[in-house]
Amino acid sequence: MTREEAYRELSIRMPGRVFLREPMDRHTSMGVGGAADCLAFPRGIEEVRDTAVFLLREGIPFLPLGNGTNLIVRERGYRGVFLSLRDLDGMELREEGGMPVLTAGAGAPLSRAVRFTVANALAGLEFCAGIPGTVGGAIRMNAGAWGMEIKDVIRSLRFLNGSATVRTEVRERLPFRYRALDLPAGTVILEGDFSLARGDERAVREQVEGFLERRRQRHPLEHPSAGSIFRNPPEGPAGLLIDRAGLKGLRVGGAAVSEKHGNFIVNDGGAGAEDVIALMRLVRERVSRETGILLEPEVKIVGEDGWEPL
After folding, report:
1. Is 298 a catalytic residue?
2. Which of the residues 166, 255, 291, 295 could staple to 271 if both were Cys, CB 3.0 to 4.6 A apart?
3. What are 175-216's pLDDT values in tens digits?
4. Location of each CATH 3.30.43.10 domain in the chain
5. Which residues on neighbouring strands pair with residue 123, listed in sequence order?
6. Which of 74, 171, 179, 284 is catalytic?
């Protein structure tokens, strides 16, 4: 079966939910990106699994897609299938051992998970307030803020492994590190269980609102961005290193280093993916020259050519 035939087969399996040659600037928070061969929207874990099995059998590359907050697709596009997990957005609260456990689908917005915990007077996810993206993306990158990370609250994880088999792993067996969960290639996160604690609704709400206000003051939320663009090295915050190198306001085309926060690259008018990547390389080179520190991307760059280290 050719790729075109495989894509037509997907269209038959998921009528109205498969899009060919889909521009990915419509599906990323930065608002940049070339076209993917195919973007599919499976419904439910079984349909995600069945689609992955089909694509593996046909030898077609695929990647899971949340809401594109940590993703840049190169202008020449992605030769494969993005599997949107948007419809894996369920949430369920239960008790285990007298303690609340929240199960959240990988496609659920992290902001909704935070609101859910506030409404149910549950403590533990307050630090996630204002972090963009989905539950699955937050798990994949071990998202964190204010001294807390996802690894501190996750209880277990369900995912598809590289052979499209659904597996569950407990926290102790998950290889978390700073801003990453080291899962094998081809893994698709499906849902996570989070260990929370009973709290006071007013106290939880006030803490969430406080974190949101701090983000509004510090981050350039008025422009499209992909969030933090580089990981913080051991030597200190990447934004501070970029600021000290005098790079705030530096631009390539419509992409600019934010004047508000050095570790944000914003699209302030008509930027393309290659503008963003060229600016990342320039920032990386300047910071390395000034400090000897080589910044590593926190965003995922995919598509033809990928990320080319300096």
Report:
1. yes
2. 255
3. 999 999 999 989 999 999 999 999 999 999 999 999 999 999
4. 3-84
5. 197
6. 179
